User: Fold this.
Amino acid sequence: MLRQAQHERDIFDLIGMKKKIVIIGLGSIGKRHARLLLEEGYDVVAFRSGTQKGNDLQLPEIYSWEELFKLKPDACFITNPTHLHLKTVQPCLEAGIPVFLEKPIDMSCENLDACLSMLKERQLPTYVAYVLRFHPVVKALREELQGKKVFHVRGVCTSYLPSWRAGEAKQYYSAHASQGGGVILDVSHEFDLMDYLLGPLEEIKGNFSRLSHLTENAEDFVDCFMRSKTGAQINLHLNFLSHHRERRLVIDTEKGCYKGDLLAGKLSFLSEKEESWEKQYHFHSDDLFREQIRYFFDHLHDPTMMNNLVDAAPLYRKIIAMREGKSLL
Assistant:
């Protein structure tokens, strides 16, 4: 008891008057958020499992929900493995703590309704982190598409799973379907982009499988057909089995064709009716994450902030239904 009390005093001594953030999960994405939060001037504490102690960023650590609740953080960043997301969101909401939830929401809808009921009752701020909304090409595309009739969209995102993280790919949750791994949820940015750029998606149908030996049992490719509420038809291909890295959108509208290359930071417009153009955007990937963090804290007291859990839930349900082989229109 004395050792525990001393540990708690040490944690409170380390935390000053700045906003206190608890980060739950220190994998690659958790470390990135933690590093940027520190750079932005926030006090960051890591919530670790009992078997994990010490961290590369030398963050102070806590090991229990009791310690977290005593700390009374201004927000919790949930960046642990996908299958633990909503189980981690629930106690945060019960304690009245705003939540920054790294994508995807989870791997099933099992705990979703309970979280949504709490949000309806408590009106707490939440944000589901799809960082590509802050990509300069995406921001420009969203502005360009306002008021335009979109006919068809082709999207592709390919990469090679072993290049994502150091070490053997199969040791990470991305390779295990039971932990929420697989390309559908790991690369769900593209579903969010279609919904964000074109309006709500009304239908998602997919053909997916495990073709390589890069995962333990999770799908490594998916080909999707989608339809937006505005009538746009969408073809989307995702895989993380390719040695060719690509992330592109081709959007055919009544005015012309927009081509967005998110890796190269290029957006072009082709038309026989209007003047064609190409724009180049220079950015570092940290810029997107930093802008996302600033957006969250600028809206920390707003339960209706962009892509809050309530607003993100309908698209998530459709993705899960497609992944589980169900129909949800």
In short: Residues 136-282 form a domain with the Dihydrodipicolinate Reductase; domain 2 fold (CATH 3.30.360.10).
